[in-house]
């Protein structure tokens, strides 16, 4: 069972977002402090068309319903125009076409979850769905900055995140972990530093 949050770390960012939802005056989050703010931010961004995520955020119907209930209990009010968007979702169809790839990324993340609360499983599904997008991962998730993605991964999957010692771009890093896990090394360069595509994997993600 999820433990009550003691407070969200990025509430000022959430309040400043163009948010097509409303929070009640006595808004108190019930999700863990580690994830409540990020989940609100991702949800808001998806509903405003600022992510690559499907309507269910990459979650199963049961998980999505559970998340929605927690957000409602936290004081989040949904407007009718948001619910209407849930009837059509091309991105969900695209996710289904790449279900095996999504599953591999999700399994990688779940294997390395911190084990503190169940929302880590939700986060694994959401991040895996974001990896199927074409932009930087933090943008595909609808986050305000890459630093929030780094914080998300360090909070939920600390052992995996800590192995990114050279600050590789997160999406590249996750796929590299999959390649190494399967014993398939796509890159033929003797080291990252000598690779001609170095800047594709490292450097700013703005």
Distance linking N and C termini: 37 Å
Overall mean pLDDT stands at 74
- Widest sheet, order of strands: 1-2
Number of strands: 2
Q: What proportion of the residues form beta strands (DSSP E)? A: under 5%
Residues in helix, %? 40-55%
Assembly classification: single chain
| Poorly predicted runs of 5 or more residues | 1-30, 188-202
Structural class of the secondary elements? mainly alpha
Principal-axis shape: globular
Characterize the structure shown:
This protein has twelve helices and two strands, in the order αβααβααααααααα. Helix content is 53%, strand content 2%. The chain is globular, with a radius of gyration of 17 Å. With 206 residues, it is mostly helical.
Task: Give a quick summary of the entry.
By secondary structure, the chain is mostly helical.
Key terms:
single chain; 206 residues; mainly alpha; globular; disordered N terminus; 2% strand; two-stranded antiparallel ribbon
């Amino acid at each position: 069972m999820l433990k009550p949050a003691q407070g969200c770390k990025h509430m000022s960012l959430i309040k400043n977002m163009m948010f097509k939802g409303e929070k009640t005056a006595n808004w108190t989050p019930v999700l863990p402090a580690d994830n409540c703010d990020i989940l609100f931010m991702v949800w808001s961004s998806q509903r405003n068309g600022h992510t690559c995520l499907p309507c269910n955020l990459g979650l199963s119907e049961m998980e999505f319903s559970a998340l929605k209930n927690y957000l409602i209990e936290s004081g989040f009010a949904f407007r009718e125009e948001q619910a209407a968007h849930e009837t059509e979702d091309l991105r969900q169809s695209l996710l289904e076409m790449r279900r095996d790839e999504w599953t591999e990324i999700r399994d990688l993340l779940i294997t390395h979850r911190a084990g503190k609360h169940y929302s880590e499983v939700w986060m694994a599904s959401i991040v895996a769905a974001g990896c199927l997008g074409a932009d930087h991962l933090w943008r595909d998730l609808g986050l305000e900055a890459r630093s929030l993605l780094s914080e998300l991964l360090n909070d939920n999957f600390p052992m995996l995140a800590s192995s990114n010692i050279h600050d590789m771009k997160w999406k590249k890093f996750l796929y590299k972990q999959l390649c190494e896990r399967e014993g398939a090394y796509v890159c033929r360069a003797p080291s990252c530093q000598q690779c001609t595509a170095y800047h594709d994997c490292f450097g700013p993600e703005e």
